[in-house]
Amino acid sequence: QVLRKSLQRGVALSTVSFLVYEAQKLFSGFAEVHASFKVEEVIEQADYLYGSGETEKLYRLLVQHKNSDDAELLWRLARASRDLAQLSSTSAEEKRRLAYEAFEYAKKALEKNESNFAAHKWYAICLSDVGDFEGIKTKIGNAIVIKEHFQRAVELNPKDATTIHLIGIWCYSFAEMPWYQRKIAATLFATPPTSTFQEALHYFHMAEEADPNFYSKNLLFLGKTYLKLNNKKMALLWLSKAKDYPAHTEEDKQV
User: Which GO cellular component terms are attached (predicted)?
Assistant: First the structure.
């Protein structure tokens, strides 16, 4: 009788343990699904706010998830932090703080998912921004790393016109680099990074082919590059397009 009762008790305990284990698995599954839905929900809200130009609201939404491990959330937070820094109403001190904050979010996004094209793109953009606060040597020193990440982003997503445009900006910047910066570059690298206006033009046209009329600044730089190449007829064509571009953002107005 004692043995039988012990066995019955053991079976009952085993059954309870099994049910508890299964329940935990079930709840864990529900939690994962719920978390997944929550991330998708936040991303959907974030993309709507970004499309509406609600920079401050977007930052407030995403900064609540700064401890997330989701690369899609993190690169969007990096972008939102940077966009907030770019506003004319943001103080110089805040611009600096937000630039470094954006870089940390982009870095984390890249660590979480190396195959995410946007993580590479925003890491490169934010690394460039940080260089603005650390002097010309750091800025030039980071240049090759920045271009590598842009190129990796294009490899992962060849249709992303903005990244192609940014490679064009990189080329344009090095093509018009003043002599004293070239001298600094020569001390930092055995073979310093260089480019030409023809190479910049290639990327600006490539970006326009990927997504026609996608960005006022691409139109502006097509015009500026043609001016550098002494082709005033083509410069006028693209500068006119830039002038007539509907101004949705503060940057469009500046362009």
Answer: mitochondrion; mitotic spindle pole; spindle microtubule
